[in-house]
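1st attempt posting a full record on here, be nice pls
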Amino acid sequence: PMLDQTGPVIIASTSNTDWQSTNRLTIKLSDEKSGLSGYQITETEDEPSSFETIAGSEYELQKEVTESKTYYIWGQDNLGNISYKKVTISYIDNEAPTILSLKEQSNYGATSLITARVIDKDSGIAGYQFTTEETEPDSWISVDSIITEIAFTYETTEKATYYFYVKDSAGHITHQQIVVSKIDNEAPLISYEISSSSMGENGWYTSLNLKANIEETGSGISHAKYCFTANESCLPNSTGVIQNNSITFSFTGKNVAQNYA
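the predicted structure (as tokens):
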């Protein structure tokens, strides 16, 4: 009589050579002596208590695996001999990158800097893009499968809603949006009016209050400096007190007769 004291021969292979959402595990079992009676796939090295029933001297099956982990493939023959093979599955990434933050600079400026912080610990970051279009971009700025936390920046001169897109090496894409508002590249508008006055002889003012109205719709008014001169220009060196977006200057006596610039 022929002896059979060994379990089935198990051969396992995977399909992925790069990152995908799944990985196909192909399993081939064979037993040329007593023949096959069952198989099982587990995630631990503990011998299974039950087997899926199969028959014949050869058997092949495929399993779609959705997680990167170690599997144990078990085979049993008709005499109860059991063998197993340990297989580590990799190159599986079924989650998009994580956008940790998307922020605009805190201070106003002629331009604004957007900073996005992202991470993808599986297949890694493969590309990103900043755009004003909500639709997925046609072109990407490529990076080399970065698996650590990383920041990407974009500088703009336009107030708008911006969309930050990022993708990983497995092709998963995610995005967030941000409204950019910290841009001010226009100076305040200033207009003047006589708020009050007293007339003297020959059309001369004896007193005059001149009000400078300041219109600012961007970053706001931080301070105002001024000077008065009878010449063409002067260097502002006096700080004005702003109240309700305006400054009032008072002139009396001889000063009122001067032609100030």
